[in-house]
Amino acid sequence: MKVRSTTVCAVIHNGKVAIGADGQATMGNTVAKNNVKKIRSLRNGTIVTGFAGSTADAFTLLERFEEKLNTYGGNMKRGAIELAKDWRTDRYLRKLEAMMIVADKEEVLIISGTGDVLEPENGVATIGSGSNYALASALSLKKHAEHLTAEEMVRESLTVAADICIYTNHNFVIQTVE
């Protein structure tokens, strides 16, 4: 049975970064859990990650990413690139079904199993089943509601996704990096 879950959204706005995710995990057509925590802080809160996909796979990737951060002195981009290389070439990692968003106070990156490390040029990154809804909302908010904070933009974008996507709920965890 395929496990579907989540929307993760990160926004850079006015010098602050916020990342958030809903808490739903779904197995087939049944909600398996409503309060999964898909946001994690690393390196004393200076780097925040969010994941979508299989929880066990995401935790494996999170551990590997943390190892890469330690190896490369906390350099988030270098750690992300090295993780993506391993993820694409390692026989075990290649089978993992998850994606990650990683963020520090200056940038947001999307890491995928195809070897991609994407840095969105507009300061908005989304992954998961409701990602397109959250992306459209966040881009619109950045353009037309500049008075909002990054955290408010993430919350509203996740709300839009949860209102539309059946694999996303309203139980949000949001963290900021300043």
Automatic annotation (TrEMBL):
Entry-linked Pfam families: Proteasome
The keyword Protease belongs to this UniProt entry's keyword annotation: yes
Annotated InterPro entries: ATP-dep_Prtase_HsIV_su, Ntn_hydrolases_N, Proteasome_sua/b, Proteasome_suB-type
Means of activity regulation: Allosterically activated by HslU binding.
Catalytic activity: ATP-dependent cleavage of peptide bonds with broad specificity
Molecular function per GO: metal ion binding; threonine-type endopeptidase activity
Subcellular location, principal: cytoplasm
GO cellular component: HslUV protease complex; proteasome core complex
Class of the enzyme per the UniProt entry, highest EC level: hydrolase
Gene3D superfamilies cross-referenced by the UniProt entry: Glutamine Phosphoribosylpyrophosphate, subunit 1, domain 1
EC number: 3.4.25.2
UniProt: Na(+) binding residues: A162, C165, T168
Record-annotated active site: T6
Keyword match Transcription regulation: no
Source superkingdom: Bacteria
Localization annotation: Cytoplasm
Keywords, sorted A to Z: Allosteric enzyme, Cytoplasm, Hydrolase, Metal-binding, Protease, Sodium, Threonine protease
Gene Ontology annotations of biological process type: proteolysis involved in protein catabolic process
Stated family: Belongs to the peptidase T1B family. HslV subfamily.
Subunit structure: A double ring-shaped homohexamer of HslV is capped on each side by a ring-shaped HslU homohexamer. The assembly of the HslU/HslV complex is dependent on binding of ATP.
Function (record text): Protease subunit of a proteasome-like degradation complex believed to be a general protein degrading machinery.
Protein name: ATP-dependent protease subunit HslV
Gene: hslV
